């Protein structure tokens, strides 16, 4: 329940990893948030620079200079957004003072099982206390726990698009958990701002390429949450593709219906779940989700279509990987944690064309 | 002077041409404006449809249905934004009731000389009264007249980028008006949403092409305003190029310095002019304007560089053609006309990447 | 069997529909063919113009002027490539003299069942004699019949990519025909050169959108050929997506293994089938097909990957929709029909980056 | 003069720097050359790998493995193409045996004055003998010297586009050498395959940015050649822009006419110069050069347009920076050096769309 006094309070915020794409987009969105005071921006390798030097598009926000993380006076900070790469995120978060609420956009606190984390991320977790405490920040499903959480682990971009579409279907037992195929497509910003040959304009442009087939780290994350929904171990096909666009993510899920169900039942389950949702929208019949319609916004568009193969259906989900798939959902979780309206700072419509 | 009572008033607004790109972007921006009530959306060939049908990215704004323009009850409307093609814009604007304030984004009321209009737009103007009354809506230069205007003719996208960069230089007599070369580059949305072969993805993608060399309609518009600044007839080179991106416009102007001036003088003139400007920003030394840093925002980035040829300089200006080059500037003019802060509804930072 | 005298003969060729993308690409490729004489270029709405007017990139090939189809003297022509839209293709092909060999790149003679054609293409076929005579031009499977055919119906771009990957698997009974899911992705040139809003740069750029879900005309074509392979009726899931690139097509097929088979068996079946193939290449283990590696070439890259779900596999196939998916395969068929080496005129490697 | 016996000889070729874009494109083109035997491919950091590993699109050319340069047996080699970065190119070329003909695509032997080289490239040249011997490989101007050269320094991509357009105009004294403004635009491949933040898809996509304003290394190269043409020191404005496309380069040159000349005179000068040129084409009146029409080909399209400012004209030139701007021109020079038809291996038309 949000009260008037909560509405007017200012929360002092630090962003760690402010020079990456998720950090930058968090700053862009937070600047529209009436109750956030951006006190500290942390970017280790850019310490001492202005945000305008690393992100010229944010030059006019009167932001603090970039700092090394150990130069921050945490006493004045209430909440931290962390946009660091996995591994580094964990290493820093374990050292943060207890009074801070933490919204982590990295992968470090998403996988609940430390052994599974070690298998997929190649290092031991060694912060199991924090891991147990962390709440998985899929806002539309865990807002109750997020409200009181100290550490929220925001879902990966692909898991967000996938789980928003499939979790209600598994919870309502309208699809078969043993036959879920997720063909996923992402824009290049999903790979981050680090330098890699395959994300050069010349390599990714005018081309389409699948990658990490059967080996993408978002697969175990998706499986963890789907398994939880059906109380049994779920294994999915998850096949991502790199698309020549900067922002946007779309998953096309091929699912098997439960014997008594039709594709229309799937649509009704989703419509019921998201009837009052601010950001997750089940489209009218035959309308097709497309990434250009959610670009820059916190919306997720979902729809269901009949399959030509009897007993199957197609579920499509589209979002902006940097917003609803990362910084937007992080801000939505922040709103829940601090008792604000969940849409505060997130009212921007998509930028099209 | 803006008063408190003005700040809280709601202005009832109609948008004509709501199914085009400038109309759509006006709606996107107006939706963030606290004092606009979007009462009517007019789109002749889509009358009866929902805005969501023509622009799915705006589906969640609780907008009125699209109407034919003659189905609108103008009595309840205070202001009209017009995003129609030229010719059609004139034909409708002449029929609008007197009590309406009109912000026209078409080309029909930009050229002050009816004969020049006829020469470049291929039809007689025949609304000379309105033409004389119209104020050229380059906000940073004519806000005084815009405040009291009934009809504001918003500048073209290229003229906006060009004039913001060059007008102060001519007014301050630091460059030679007889030797101005404007190499202009635009994203494809500048061509509108109409169907043309050269704006298909397959034709415009992965390619760069100059067009309308020496014949673009924005040349006489630029010359009209530059001539006014120096009280003599100015002829410019204006050479536009089509760039494979959706949004963004950049002009690279090659100018000859007045004998006593250096390129640094040009920079100082611009810095002085825009010292307190909300949206026009002269960048720090050596920082290069780029369209990706203003995408989706109402900013215009300008900077000056020395030329290798002695006695010359390079002036670069970048903006988003649909925002500062059209709908954003229109909204800025609306704010001036109705006594609001000029930045109301326009605070969004650029979307990058 | 190709003889020396065949190798030196010149074949007089006409291209109908020379102003479309498939017609244009046919001309580009044919110009590298040592035994083709391009005698006539037909483009109804551009009759009288030079090819350079509609395709400036082909200006230096010393091509004949574009003609209306009824101005052609067919007596001097040996072979016709037809790049017209469906419907129009049929209407003209039925009127062509008997001595001509015809390579049709339209959809009109692909579907063998006239009722199925009527259902999917919205008009009766009414040329059943020709239809029965036509050979389905999937070169790697029907070269024997193509050798002696008078009319070859070149497969659609999606069916080519799909069938090259899946036909051997069904013929060798290593996958289950009742559970085939084809997630297909195409560049924008697949939609042709006609003017449509959704293929404008501004609409298709920086975005990804599924389309024709469950309703694409290539689905029944794929099913026809797969059904033939297993002697039973096959229904597939076929879900195409529009990708912001001009050329390229990739299908990600999700298949169920026959109980005794592993994903490695699928790979071995494909390797055996294409061991000596000039254009269809099964990639080394773990190498991922990508459209940028076949752009502009007649190659099709295929590979097989294990699925995380036991008993399933992923088959990926990539080609250039205008070359191996249309004009290139047409030229390959021409080579087979006239006794040339199938690679003549098709030796160009892909253009990357 | 080319004789029949020359036509049938095979030249043994090594490519140094085969893993970069210019090296890769050289291999693509050389594979279509009937008289080249690609004996050695050198790529230091990829020694031991297959070319297919670094350039999958060239997998089917039966190429030798990549080697370190000092593992090459130069005795069997006749000619070397060098696609290394500047500095490294010089260091290796000085060590190559005397019997080799060398076509260098780097910048190391373009600037004739060692001091100027040191100023712009930041290191002393220290190979002045070779530097004096090197011939500037602008084929259309220096074919006589190229025929007998041992070392050909291929021009930079921007200088090629610029000089082909402007050299004839200066040589024929129809334009003023003191007032030349070159607004240049390039696709991203011009920056090479090295990892840089500004060439990531996310940074360069959907945006346009000028760069190296007044400081680009191609400016002194252009000036050197223009100065030579008029026997006096020429300084030009040269302002490059990065365009969101992989291939293609276009320069828009703004020039002042000599008092007695019209823009038509410029066109006539160019038409006369290139009347019999295989690759440099002066377009028909009003036809506009565009990079998509030369993509992947060795053509350069040029045209002249009247300026709105009296006494001035606009000269536009477009080419593919990796072909006519680098590897294609290198192969053309090879043909001249070895007595082949200059078009051998370069007959591919542009790939469009």
Largest sheet of chain A: 7 strands, parallel
Query: How are the strands of the biggest sheet of chain A laid out side by side?
Result: 3-2-1-4-5-7-6
Q: Kindly name the structural category of chain A.
A: alpha/beta
What amount of the residues of chain A lies in strands?
A: 15-25%
Please tally the β strands of chain A and state the result. Answer: 14
Provide structural commentary:
Four copies of one chain form a homotetramer. Chain A has helices at residues 4-8, 21-30, 51-54, 88-93, 114-121, 128-133, 139-148, 157-171, 201-204, 218-230, 263-273, 323-337, and strands at 11-16, 36-42, 66-67, 79-82, 101-104, 135-136, 151-153, 175-186, 209-210, 237-242, 249-257, 280-282, 300-306, 312-319. In chain A, strands 3-2-1-4-5-7-6 form a seven-stranded parallel sheet. By secondary structure, the first copy, chain A, is an alpha/beta fold. In chain A, helix 8 (157-171) runs parallel beside helix 10. Chains in contact: A-B, A-C, A-D, B-C, B-D, C-D.
Put the structure in a nutshell:
The first copy, chain A, is an alpha/beta fold.
Which key terms come to mind for this protein?
7-stranded mixed β-sheet; 7-stranded parallel β-sheet; 14 strands; 12 helices; 353 residues; homotetramer; 30% helix; globular; alpha/beta
Give the helices and strands, then pairings.
4 copies of one chain form a homotetramer.
Chain A (H helix, E strand, L loop, with lengths): L3 H5 L2 E6 L4 H10 L5 E7 L8 H4 L11 E2 L11 E4 L5 H6 L7 E4 L9 H8 L6 H6 L1 E2 L2 H10 L2 E3 L3 H15 L3 E12 L14 H4 L4 E2 L7 H13 L6 E6 L6 E9 L5 H11 L6 E3 L17 E7 L5 E8 L3 H15 L16
Parallel strand pairs in A: 1-2, 1-4, 2-3, 4-5, 5-7, 6-7, 8-10, 12-13
Antiparallel strand pairs in A: 8-11, 9-10, 11-14, 13-14
